[in-house]
Design brief:
Layout lengths: L1 H17 L5 H24 L3 H25 L1
Helix pairs in contact: 2-3
């Protein structure tokens, strides 16, 4: 569990630093994908499912949600 926490913290730090040159839309899509992947992996790990499948599905759904969020923000 400690190894996972270190990997997650390192990944988060890299993700945050990599977003500095991105547009608002790109940041929302990437952030949504990362959050979705993390939630999908955690959810399937807890329920005993395929962790990589949960991460992939969660990442895709999260990226789509980030894209929709950006479009909704621009329509306001």
């Amino acid at each position: 569990m400690r190894k996972f926490a270190i990997v997650a913290a390192t990944g988060t730090a890299l993700l945050v630093s990599a977003c500095s040159g991105m547009s608002s839309q790109e940041q929302k899509v990437v952030s949504g994908g990362a959050i979705g992947a993390a939630v999908g992996a955690a959810g399937t790990a807890i329920t005993g499912g395929c962790v990589s499948c949960g991460a992939a599905i969660g990442g895709a759904v999260g990226a789509g949600a980030g894209y929709v969020k950006d479009k909704m923000d621009k329509n306001d």
